[in-house]
Write a structure and sequence with these properties.
Blueprint (H helix, E strand, L loop, with lengths): L13 E2 L2 E2 H13 L4 H45 L2 H35 L6 H169 L8 H125 L9 H16 L1
Helix pairs in contact: 4-5
Length: 452
């Protein structure tokens, strides 16, 4: 009968609302990206939740199907109990029985007529007319019965077509509903995956920003310490230089003061000597005056006194000159010796300063070298630690990926078996006739699959 063939629905193999090609592409993308353990845990929770949600959806669908079958049976029983078509059918059956009885009566009349004819009984014109009328009525009744049977068959055919059409519409609505739910679930999964990926990218970005900020702060701190060390060193050098210049100036001022004091002392000595000479000259002048007063007495000694005075004056000048020259020589020698001592001390201080500066530079170079070694060692240890942690995380990710692969394979097998079971359930209840050989072969295959 037309329209009774079951509509086949093509089921695409999916896993958690997505085709397997989507998960393969996602697996390839995940192999090229770094996976965080926290995100993995969240994803495992999402997968477990989705698995539970899928099981709940399956149970819900099974319950809905059972409820729908039960409702259909109840409706069928009610429709059969108070169905106008069934009542009409019963009435038609009763009419059909009555018509059969009428036909039997007519056949009986025909048999009686034939019996009359066989016995040679003459029939009148009226009997022939009645017989033709009866035959005409029989032909009309036969046509009417054929028409009723054809209408009945058309009605049954139309009822079957309506049932098939309703069933197809119901299957289409169910398929559309399932497709819509799958699209909504896929959209929700895509949103969850996108949000998880976005959160992971934001987490990575925040960690990178924090690491960059920490490195930038560390770099600024190291540069600041380096600049402060250089500044402190320059300030120390400048202070040492200023202290050296100040000490040198103090030494020069002290030497100048000492020289001025010595000059003042020498000037005092010279003034005292000049005062003594002046007094001596005054005494001699007084003596000369006394001698002049006694000139009249001592005329003979006049020239002698003049000579003695001239000699004394020359001697005094010579003594003064010699004192001055000796004092100047002593001052010059003392100044030269002090300058030599001062230069020696300055040279020694400068050598000590150079030695101290060289020793300090060597010490700073050694400290910088040790600091660089420590920094390199710390960086190497930090790099080694990060490499070890990265290797451990990579191992964990590989193990988790293998676990997910196995889980996906197992879920795929489970889904395939469930799809096969659903297809088997959706097949018609009537089975094709199979031979004994085919039944035994299927039984052996089922037993071998169970042993595996």
């Amino acid at each position: 009968m037309v329209g009774l063939a079951k509509r086949k629905v093509k089921h695409t193999p999916v896993y958690f609302g997505h085709p397997f090609q989507f998960w393969k592409t996602r697996q390839r993308c995940d192999l090229n990206t770094v996976i965080d353990i926290e995100d993995m845990k969240k994803l495992s929770d999402v997968v477990e939740y989705d698995n539970m949600h899928l099981q709940m959806q399956k149970l819900k669908l099974l319950l809905e199907q059972e409820e729908e079958c039960l409702l259909q049976e109840l409706m069928m029983k009610q429709s059969m109990a108070v169905c106008g078509y069934c009542q009409e059918r019963e009435r038609n059956v009763q009419k059909y029985d009555e018509e059969i009885k009428k036909e039997q009566m007519i056949e009986c009349k025909k048999a009686l007529e034939r019996e009359k004819i066989a016995k040679g009984m003459q029939c009148t014109k009226l009997d022939e007319i009645q017989l033709r009328a009866m035959q005409k009525l029989q032909m009309e009744e036969k046509k009417y019965k054929e028409k009723k049977e054809e209408e009945m068959e058309n009605m049954w055919h139309q009822i079957l077509l309506d049932n098939v059409r309703k069933k197809e519409e119901r299957e289409i609505r169910e398929a559309d509903r399932l497709r819509q739910e799958m699209l909504e679930r896929r959209k929700a999964y895509d949103e969850q995956i996108a949000s998880a990926k976005k959160e992971r990218q934001e987490t990575f970005k925040n960690e990178r920003d924090e690491e960059n900020k920490r490195l930038e702060k560390m770099k600024l701190k190291i540069e600041q310490e380096y600049y402060e060390a250089i500044k402190h060193k320059r300030e120390q050098q400048m202070a040492n230089r200023l202290n050296f210049i100040k000490g040198h100036e103090m030494k020069l001022s002290r030497l100048k003061n000492e020289k001025n004091q010595e000059r003042e002392i020498d000037a005092n000595y010279i003034s005292v000597a000049e005062e003594a000479l002046r007094k001596e000259r005054q005494r001699k002048r007084n003596k000369i005056r006394a001698l002049k007063q006694e000139e009249s007495v001592f005329v003979d000694h006049y020239h002698l006194e003049r000579k003695m005075a001239a000699d004394l004056e020359n001697e005094t000048n010579n003594i003064i000159r010699e004192c001055k020259t000796n004092a100047e020589k002593e001052n010059d020698e003392r100044t030269i010796q002090e300058e030599i001592v001062k230069k020696m001390k300055a040279l020694q201080n400068y050598k000590q300063y150079l030695d101290e500066l060289k020793r300090q530079n060597n010490k700073e170079r050694i400290e910088r070298k040790e600091q660089m070694e420590r920094v390199k060692k710390t960086a190497y240890l930090e790099l080694q630690r990060r490499l070890n942690s990265a290797n451990e995380e990579l191992k964990k990710q590989i193990e988790y990926r293998n676990m997910l692969t196995n889980q996906i394979k197992n879920n795929q097998k489970i889904l395939e078996t469930e799809l096969n079971n659903v297809e088997c359930k959706q097949r018609p209840f009537t089975k094709k006739a199979i031979t004994f050989k085919e039944a035994m072969r299927d039984k052996i295959n089922i037993r071998l699959d169970g042993e595996r």
